[in-house]
Amino acid sequence: MARTVASLPAGTRITDYISLGVLTKTFPLDKVLAVVAAAGKTNQRQRDLPAHVVMYYVIALTLYMQVSYREVLRCLLEGVKWLLGPEWEVKVAGKSAISQARTRLGWEPLKQLHDQVVAPIAMPKTKGAWYRHSRAVR
């Protein structure tokens, strides 16, 4: 039996979907959920934009600085839909909902996640990363 060829929707790039995988590999969901819980920012009710999704969204905003906020959210949610399957419904929130979600989250969980995950990757053998015994920062 012949299968149909899988293709991306018109106007999208595979990198739009891959970036979600890179985000979840770099910032694992369990760490994101733990940071959100530690900051006391877990949702009391079911929302269109839960706190952990907003965390990934804010991180994704740094990858797509020239793109509108709603388009970044659409790409992020389309990536989730692509991972979970076509039966998952994508509902892109409006500008005010995005703003309210970011305000609810605040900056504290993002700083905590950064402090837990981000670290220098230069090893003592990395050429050009050290000056005498100090790490060179550009």
Structure, briefly:
With 138 residues, the chain is mainly α.
Order of helices and strands: HHHHHHEE
Largest sheet, if any? 2 strands, antiparallel
Average pLDDT over all residues = 79
Low-confidence stretches: none
Number of domains: 1
> Helix content range of the residues, please?
40-55%
Question: What is the end-to-end distance?
Answer: 56 Å
Q: What best-fitting shape do the alpha-carbon axes yield?
A: globular
How many beta-strand runs? 2
Radius of gyration: 18 Å
Q: Order of strands across the widest beta sheet?
A: 1-2
Residue share in β-strands: under 5%
Q: How many helices? A: 6
Protein structure class:
mainly alpha
Molecular structure report:
The chain is an all-alpha fold and 138 residues long. The protein has one domain (14-135). It is 53% helix and 3% strand. A two-stranded antiparallel sheet has the order 1-2. A hairpin with a 2-residue loop joins strand 1 and strand 2 (134-135). The chain is globular. It starts with 13 loop residues before the first helix and ends with a strand. The relative contact order is 0.14. The mean pLDDT is 79.
Key features of this structure:
138 residues, mainly alpha, two-stranded antiparallel ribbon, 2 strands
Write the SSE topology:
Blueprint: H1 14-26, H2 29-38, H3 51-63, H4 69-84, H5 95-105, H6 108-117, E1 130-131, E2 134-135
Antiparallel strand pairs: 1-2
